[in-house]
Structure formats: structure tokens, C-alpha cells
Amino acid sequence: MVCQCGALLVVTLLVKMGLAGGCACPAATILSQFPSEVPADVCCLNYSGSAFSHVRWSVFTNETNIDTLDLSFCNISSVHMSGKGVSTLQKVYLSHNRLTALPRDFLAGQPSLTEVDLSGNLIQELPDGFLQDSYSLQKLYLQGNQLRFLPGSLLQKPSLQTLELDGNPWDCSCLLLEGLEEGRKVNR
């Protein structure tokens, strides 16, 4: 009985530390400049509330084990990418920044990605290749941007369970409505 309780305690500690079966995110680390590299041995990076305007996305795709990335409320106005890179990212929080555009193929080819929050930005258009081949995506938050159109491919993700779109100045043309209807058929 003592051995079983000890084993249960060890497993519980490992889960709380993010070493087994889950990832515990620490409190936010506030930075004034974007880091040139990130620790390879962490599962969660929480820089929420920091003050850097530019992000080099390659930092998060080069041999890191990060599955949760929180860059919300960081005053980010641009994301720089250099080619596609597969990562272990599962959750990406970029809400409440100053993004007006995203780079081509942003978050494309991310098979582990389940949740993306881009709400509360100024995004006017989603780029070509956005979330392409991200087959595990379940939640996408795009509310409170400046989007007028939505790519049809975004609506045809069978795994997508939550799609928040309110607070955008939609151009409710026949093309948008047809895309929404097609997406609804695929996701039934």
C-alpha cells in the first residue's frame, strides 16, 4: 500500500511539473525584447504581457519541445518567418496584439496544433496556406479583428469544433455564405 501511494505521488508531481501526461504553464515571464533563443527543455512558454513588437517564429520551430505558447498582450505588430518548420506546438495564443497581417503559410504543417487564438488583433486577411495541413485543429478564435473574408479551406477542417468569428466587418457576399455552407457540410 505504501509503495502504491508513493508511486501515485511521483506521477502526480511529474504531471504538475509538466514532465508526464501534461504541461503546466508557469506564470508569465515579462520581457522587453524578444529572445534570440528559447529553452529547449520547457513545454510551455508564457511571455504574456511582454513588450516586444516583432517575433521571429523560427525560434519556436527549431528543436524545441514547446507545446503551449502564450504571446498574448505583447504589443506584437509583426511575425517574421523564414520557411516552414514543423513544431510540437499544440496551443498558440497571440490574442490582443497589434497584428494587421500574418506571413504566408503561417502555422501551416503543424500536425499537433489543436488551439489557436488570434482574437483582438487588427488582422485584415488570412494568408495563403494559413493552418494548411493542421489536421488536429479543434479551436480557432478570430473574433475582434478586421476580417472581411474567410478562406474556404479553413471551414473544411473536420476536427474543428469551435470557431469564433464575431466582431469582424464581414463582407456577407454569396461567396462567403457558400463557403460557410460547404464548411458546415464537411464538419457534420
Automatic annotation (TrEMBL):
Top-level taxonomic group: Eukaryota
SUPFAM superfamilies according to UniProt: L domain-like
Protein's organism: Zoarces viviparus (Viviparous eelpout)
Secretion signal span: 1-20
Protein name as catalogued: LRRCT domain-containing protein
Lineage, highest ranks first: Eukaryota, Metazoa, Chordata, Craniata, Vertebrata
One GO cellular component term noted in the UniProt record for this chain: extracellular space
Keywords: Leucine-rich repeat, Repeat, Signal
